[in-house]
Amino acid sequence: MKYMSAGLIAFLNSLGPGVDPLIADLLTIAPVGGGPVVRITSAPVDLRSTSLHGAILNTSPVTLDPTVYTFIAGGVTFTRDRIVTKIGLEVNPTPLTLAIPQSGQTLNSTTWQAAIAAGYLEGAAITLERAFMPTWGDTSRGTVILEKGNTGECRPSRSTIYLEIKPAIAILGNPMPRRQFQPGCLHILYDTGCALSQAAFTTSDAAAPGSTASVINSGLTQADGYFALGAIKFTSGANAGLQRRCYGFAHASGAIAVKPAFPFIPNTGDTFDIYPGCDKTQQTCTAKFGNLVHFAGFPYVPVAEATL
């Protein structure tokens, strides 16, 4: 159900045969983090409108947001595909294409493409409205909300932005519960949930004689397997700045096996930084990192039983 004010209904009914109102779409994009709100219109002139954003639909009377917003014409423009409305729980995203001028238009103090690549519009609230007017700029009769939801796919190109409006009902498709019950830890090593500092576990050393591109000899003396699943990054030599994943570490020789191999065989004395990885088990979290308080796995969940 699309709500129309009594004034808008009366205006549309008053139009004679063959007389069409002036029509324009109004687009509002509000980032989740509370950054600058984007308000643009397909009209040839700026429009000032008392929005229905705060309306509770399917009730009477509808409460209007008392703030008058300005929707900017020109600059960033947009087109949309048709809106599909169905009874039921099927989600039908509405595609939008925004045309971005080459200069003079920014989003959160940077280019639109850079802001979107950084996730600025991820999950942003979007409202698409339509205004019917006797003359350009006369929005006194209110607008009709065509779609209201959040950003879905958002894909930038050199001069355009493709994004989808996902209806609010799409949230019903989110996996639940958010945290699944599984033996392994749900955190990523060194993230905010894990709470460990990567720098605190980073060790510096240098390549020892006999090193190859895939096995780096060193003077490290940690226990066998300590650096497995971690990473090594050279800080000098031909491989400086390159990082590889560790898949094995032998205490006896200090040998670090890496995949894929480095492009150059390191010279003796080439320095590197290395830090350990985690196999997400409770044993590793306790013995290697002493971080059981932040362990987010469920190692005692019973295993599934086979039915014979």
Concise description?
This protein has helices spanning 6-14, 112-117, 282-287, and strands spanning 22-30, 38-41, 47-50, 68-71, 77-80, 94-99, 125-133, 143-156, 160-167, 203-206, 215-216, 231-234, 243-250, 255-259, 271-275. Strand 12 (231-234) and strand 13 (243-250) form a beta hairpin.
- The number of domains is 2
How large is the count of helical segments?
A: 3
Low-confidence stretches: 53-63
The value of Rg in angstroms is: 29 Å
Distance between the termini: 53 Å
Average pLDDT figure: 84
Mind summarizing the main beta sheet? 7 strands, antiparallel
According to DSSP, the number of beta strands is 15
Strand fraction equals: 25-35%
Which structural class fits the helix and strand makeup? Answer: mainly beta
Element order: H for helix, E for strand? HEEEEEEHEEEEEEEEEH
Strand order of the largest sheet: 2-1-7-8-9-6-5
The geometry reads as: elongated
Helix content: under 10%
List the helices and strands and how they pair.
Layout: H1 6-14, E1 22-30, E2 38-41, E3 47-50, E4 68-71, E5 77-80, E6 94-99, H2 112-117, E7 125-133, E8 143-156, E9 160-167, E10 203-206, E11 215-216, E12 231-234, E13 243-250, E14 255-259, E15 271-275, H3 282-287
Antiparallel strand pairs: 1-2, 1-7, 3-4, 5-6, 6-9, 7-8, 8-9, 10-15, 11-14, 12-13, 12-15, 13-14
How would you explain this protein's 3D organization?
By secondary structure, the chain is mostly beta strands. It contains 3 helices and 15 strands. The chain has helices at residues 6-14, 112-117, 282-287, and strands at residues 22-30, 38-41, 47-50, 68-71, 77-80, 94-99, 125-133, 143-156, 160-167, 203-206, 215-216, 231-234, 243-250, 255-259, 271-275. The strands form 3 sheets. The protein has a 7-stranded antiparallel sheet with strand order 2-1-7-8-9-6-5. Strands 10-15-12-13-14-11 form a 6-stranded antiparallel sheet, with no helix packed on it. A hairpin with a 7-residue loop joins strand 1 (22-30) and strand 2 (38-41). It is elongated, with a radius of gyration of 29 Å. Mean pLDDT is 84; it is low at 53-63.
